[in-house]
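Example S7 (structure tokens).
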């Protein structure tokens, strides 16, 4: 049951302080667990991904099934109502319109000393987006991460989404198609971040990782920063 805090409640300040502190420290044991997962994936690649996905998501994968196929995407889209699909398209269009206004351009100029100055703006070759799965569905995370990348001209967008018990909300895959995601892998958790950061036999290494996730995902992003760029460390909702 959701706990509701009211500003007028006695003890509000202390209760709110504890909520704020949740994102300040990684709980004991989690960082080492994530480090072990990162090392395992870095050293063993796909084999580690298959084992970890089987353990945590009860999903058996191999080299032929780790990636979502075009047929699986079309099957998911067929289960999305026309109204919902139109809403996703509208959201994607609005996000794209907003980010086009933010887009920076290359410019060159010669100053008074005849020195060439300017800025060169080039999109990244490949980015990875993480989309939470399992207990909730987040097609919005797909759109808010993939659409800006597409507007920026990123060469390839790779998406990681956990599919516990082989289940994924069809709206997530529909949003991926609308946003122009190039490849989708059925892997979540810290192991997904490791795969994007280091690359495996199936998952390509990316230049930047974006997207929200649980404490294991957030910790993994923090630990791989430097090996790969990230957007931010998202705190708890």
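Recovered sequence:
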């Amino acid at each position: 049951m959701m706990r509701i805090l009211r500003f007028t409640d006695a003890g509000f300040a202390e209760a709110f302080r504890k909520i704020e502190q949740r994102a300040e420290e990684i709980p004991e044991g989690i960082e080492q667990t994530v480090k072990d997962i990162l090392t395992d994936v870095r050293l063993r690649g796909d084999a580690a991904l298959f084992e970890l996905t089987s353990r945590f998501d009860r999903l058996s994968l191999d080299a032929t099934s780790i990636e979502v196929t075009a047929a699986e995407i079309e099957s998911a889209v067929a289960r999305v109502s026309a109204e919902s699909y139109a809403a996703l398209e509208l959201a994607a269009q609005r996000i794209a319109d907003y980010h086009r206004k933010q887009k920076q351009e290359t410019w060159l100029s010669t100053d008074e000393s005849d020195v060439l100055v300017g800025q060169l703006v080039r999109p990244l070759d490949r980015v990875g987006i993480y989309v939470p799965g399992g207990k909730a569905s987040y097609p919005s995370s797909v759109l808010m991460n993939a659409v800006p990348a597409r507007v920026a001209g990123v060469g390839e967008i790779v998406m990681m989404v956990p599919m516990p018990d082989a289940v994924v909300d069809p709206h997530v895959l529909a949003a991926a198609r609308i946003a122009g995601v190039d490849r989708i892998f059925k892997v979540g958790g810290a192991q997904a971040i490791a795969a994007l950061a280091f690359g495996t036999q199936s998952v390509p290494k990316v230049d930047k990782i974006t997207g929200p996730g649980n404490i294991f995902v957030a910790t993994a992003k923090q630990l791989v920063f430097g090996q790969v760029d990230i957007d931010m460390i998202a705190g708890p909702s």
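Notes on this example. The chain has nine helices and seven strands.
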